[in-house]
Design goal:
Keywords: Kinase, Transferase. The chain is an alpha+beta fold and 300 residues long. It is built from nine helices and eleven strands. The strands form four sheets. Strands 1-2-3-5-4 form a five-stranded antiparallel sheet, with helices on both faces. Helix 3 crosses helix 7.
Length: 300
């Protein structure tokens, strides 16, 4: 057990029912330790520590993974359980991105979205209202419609924080606010709430091997799930690029077509992640959000 961090062995055994034999550190987390743990059965699981200063983060992630899995359409790591210190899921080893897996993922994502949510802004069942996206707090509260929810909980709180910090000027905040007045007029704004991953940038699109049968595909990891507009997940995929992105989007549209002109709305749906990144990483992302707002005002 000398190979395992303090407390990990006990949590893994309690949550999986099998003894932990050894652990291999994994990189990539901003605030958590992560390990590939080999069990006495020979199976491998993934263990992630509770991040400091982020109460409820593991609870929110576990609820998000279960909710996506309950759709019956997604590849997400199976949750073995979580306690106050660790989240334990199946371990999915990495594979090479492929066009076939991308197309399958596009169809799956469309079906996950179509599985729906009870309201825009709702948390996953059993998930906390006060959750996280990356290292930033994120409030989930059911709203009357998508424009009201998106403006009130996904744009305005982060704009206020950026203005208070001096990262955005009041005139720039006013530009973003003016762009939000367009939301109600957008095609598809009245769509029913979709079941969103919520943080679907390329780093959370994991190309891997199925631990059950060895097949390759795309797993969605590290979700910040909630009810929202499906175009927001697709805009997040566009934000930093993603392997075989056009194949993903093409298969998605074949499965469940989007409202006309959706590519012109990508920027408005990216306001949320850009503002979050502005809060976490500074002026560059905040300025991009202002640029997106100005472009939306010109085009609409």
């Amino acid at each position: 057990m000398r190979h395992l961090p303090d407390g990990l062995a006990a949590s893994v055994e309690r949550l999986t029912g099998s003894r932990a034999e050894r652990a291999r550190p994994l990189g990539g987390g901003d605030a958590s330790e992560a390990y590939e743990v080999t069990l006495a059965t020979g199976d491998r699981v993934f263990a992630k520590s509770a991040p400091s200063g982020m109460p409820g983060a593991l609870e929110a992630e576990a609820a998000s993974l279960r909710w996506l899995d309950e759709s019956g359409q997604a590849r997400v790591p199976r949750v073995h359980g979580q306690d106050e210190r660790w989240l334990v899921t199946d371990h999915v080893s990495a594979s090479t991105p492929s066009r076939k897996a991308a197309e399958e993922f596009g169809r799956q994502l469309a079906r996950v979205h179509a599985s729906g949510a009870r309201a825009h802004g709702c948390p996953p069942p059993g998930g906390p209202r006060d959750a996280w996206i990356g290292l930033a707090p994120m409030r989930n509260d059911p709203g009357a419609d998508w424009p009201t929810f998106y403006r009130g909980l996904r744009v305005e709180p982060y704009v206020r924080e950026l203005v208070d910090a001096g990262t955005l000027g009041t005139d720039e905040a006013a530009t973003i606010d003016e762009a939000c007045e367009l939301l109600e007029q957008l095609p598809g704004a009245d769509e029913p709430p979709a079941r969103l991953h919520g943080d679907l940038w390329s780093g959370n699109v994991h190309w891997g091997h199925d631990p059950a049968d060895g097949s390759t595909g795309v797993w969605m990891i590290d979700p910040a799930a909630h009810g929202g507009h499906r175009e927001t997940d697709l805009a997040m995929l566009n934000l930093f690029g993603c392997p075989h992105l056009e194949e993903i989007l093409g298969a998605y549209e074949d499965e469940r077509p989007l409202a006309e002109g959706w590519r012109r709305r990508v920027g408005l749906h990216q306001l949320f992640p850009l503002l979050v990144h502005g809060v976490l990483f500074g002026r560059g992302f905040a300025a991009r959000a202002v640029g997106v707002a100005r472009e939306a005002l010109r085009e609409h």
